[in-house]
Every structure is written in structure tokens, then in C-alpha cells.
Design brief:
Layout: H1 3-17, E1 26-27, H2 29-40, E2 47-51, H3 59-66, E3 71-76, H4 79-92, E4 97-101, E5 114-120, H5 129-139, E6 140-151, H6 171-174, H7 183-194, H8 197-206, E7 209-223, H9 226-233, H10 239-244, H11 247-265, E8 271-284
Parallel strand pairs: 2-3, 2-5, 3-4, 5-6
Antiparallel strand pairs: 1-7, 6-8, 7-8
Helix pairs in contact: 9-11
Length: 286
């Protein structure tokens, strides 16, 4: 699949789920976005760019920090996500928030026009993330920083999901995915520089950054119930698996996940899972 076709598929997936994204009784992207902004620590009056902003899990907390004297621009490939952000900004009265449909791979924005570039679980979807990160250095003012989050990739673990999910998703189901979306293909793409911290640091240094800091810590994923989690999974990256499964296999996977998650829950309360997340901070080297 060429990069244009890949981007169209990603945009369609998130366009279709925009109205329900991060709004279905599951808390994950919102607390992760808040933590990302805490680590980025944008100051009052600073200018923030959020690449792959989704519905604004990082964008709105950043806008609150920079205040009326600053601004926060969110960009996303999916027009429906951008419309959701604009509607939320209007409802909140967030005059310092702007959202645009734009390719995060190479945003056509003025040089040195931002102090912080954020990426909440978005850098991993770029076709060539190291090249994109090198372009962001031109967008950053002196002393600016890029701060992004990603899964903690581990050998033998289903990418993008907590380790507890690996035994719940049979390998036979993955054969229904297009080759480029199968776990082994995703691992080859992302683990080449994101899994090993040394590789990650060297990649960012080659891209024009210094003082690279890598922090791995859990973010709590909280779901009202296993059923809620399964419904929510249709609105994020796992939607790619769901939409390629035949009806019988889709029903089987739904049952397996609900049963497995119910065992993990161990009672009648909410389902709470610690999700390993990698937070990366790097300052532009000039």
C-alpha cells in the first residue's frame, strides 16, 4: 500500500468513529492526554501544535495552560475529528483553540511558529515518523520541544493493546487483516526505532533534537464494563481488525474478549487495566 492510500484508509477509519471516539464509557486517551501535557509543561503565552489531535485529549489541556495569550492548533487527517474539535472549542468558549485538516507528515506551517509540538499516540501512525520529526524542528522556536506518547512495544505482545489482550486474540483471526496491518508488519514498522530506547534517542538526535528523555509509566484504562470496552474498541485503531473480520469470527472475538475481560475485572465493578505508555520529550538542538 502506498503512503497516499494508507493515509486515506487511516482518515476514513477515524472519520467514521469521530462522533463516538473517546466518548463511550472508557477512559484512556483523556488521562493520557492530560499526562502528556503535564510532561510538556507549556507555559502561559506559548504556542502549541498538536499533531493527530483527534478530539482534543491533549489539545484542550494545553490550551488551558497557555491561556488567552497563547494558542493551541490541532491538526488531523480526519475532517470529522477536526469538526468535533471545532464544536467542542465553541462549546467551551476556547478562543485560543484552532483545528485544521492537515497532514501531520509534513504540515505546511511557518518556521519557528511553535514552542511545543505534541503527539498523543499519533506519531506511530505516520508513514515515516523520523522524517516527520525532523521537519518539526523547523516549526519549533529556539528552546522548543516535541513531546509524544506511544505504546511500549514488547516482543510477542499484540501491538497497541495492553499485554493482557494478547492471549484473547487468536492468531487465526489476524489472517483476515491486510498484510500491511498484521501485527508482524506493524512491529517491523514501529519497533525499528521505538522499542529500544537507545535507538529512539539516536533517531531523535539525527532528526535534530537533544536532551532526549524517555519515561515509561502506566496509564489507567477504565471501562464501565467489558461490553463497553468492546464497543469502544470499534472507534480506535482496533477498528481495522473488526472491519476485516467475517461476521462469525467477529462474534467469536467479541465473546472471547468479554469473557476474558470479565475474568480480569474479577467482580461487578468497572474494568481497570494498567496500560504501559512511553512518553518521549526532546528539545530542538539549537
Amino acid at each position: 500500500m502506498d503512503s497516499s492510500a494508507y493515509k486515506r484508509q487511516v482518515a476514513v477509519v477515524f472519520d467514521d468513529s469521530a462522533a463516538r471516539y473517546d466518548r463511550m464509557g472508557v477512559e484512556f486517551f483523556t488521562p493520557m492526554g492530560r499526562r502528556l501535557v503535564e510532561l510538556a509543561a507549556p507555559a502561559e503565552g506559548e504556542r502549541v501544535l498538536d499533531v493527530g489531535c483527534g478530539r482534543g485529549a491533549s489539545l484542550f489541556p494545553a490550551a488551558e495552560r497557555v491561556g488567552p495569550a497563547g494558542r493551541a492548533l490541532g491538526i488531523d487527517l480526519a475532517p470529522a475529528m477536526v469538526e468535533e474539535v471545532r464544536a467542542e472549542a465553541a462549546a467551551r468558549g476556547s478562543a485560543n483553540v484552532e483545528a485544521r485538516v492537515m497532514d501531520a507528515e509534513d504540515p505546511g506551517l511557518p518556521e519557528r511558529s511553535f514552542d511545543v509540538v505534541l503527539g498523543g499516540y499519533s506519531v506511530i501512525f505516520l508513514t515515516n515518523a523520523p522524517e516527520a520529526l525532523s521537519r518539526y524542528t523547523r516549526l519549533l522556536a529556539d528552546g522548543g520541544r516535541v513531546v509524544f506518547s506511544s505504546p511500549v512495544f514488547r516482543p510477542g505482545v499484540f501491538p497497541f493493546l495492553p499485554p493482557e489482550f494478547t492471549p484473547l486474540i487468536p492468531n487465526s483471526l489476524l489472517e483476515h487483516l491486510p498484510p500491511e496491518w498484521r501485527p508482524e508488519a506493524l512491529v517491523r514498522r514501529f519497533n525499528s526505532w521505538l522499542e529500544d530506547t537507545g535507538d529512539l534517542e539516536r533517531t531523535l538526535e539525527r532528526a535534530g533534537y537533544g536532551d532526549v528523555r524517555v519515561l515509561d509509566e502506566p496509564v489507567l484504562m477504565t471501562a464501565e464494563s467489558p461490553e463497553r470496552w468492546v464497543e469502544w474498541s470499534h472507534t480506535q485503531g482496533m477498528r481495522l481488525l473488526w472491519q476485516h473480520l467475517p461476521p462469525r469470527q467477529r462474534d467469536d472475538l467479541r465473546e472471547r474478549l468479554i469473557e476474558g475481560l470479565d475474568r480480569l475485572r474479577g467482580g461487578s465493578g468497572p474494568l481497570v487495566i494498567q496500560v504501559p505508555v512511553r512518553f518521549v520529550t526532546a528539545w530542538v538542538a539549537r
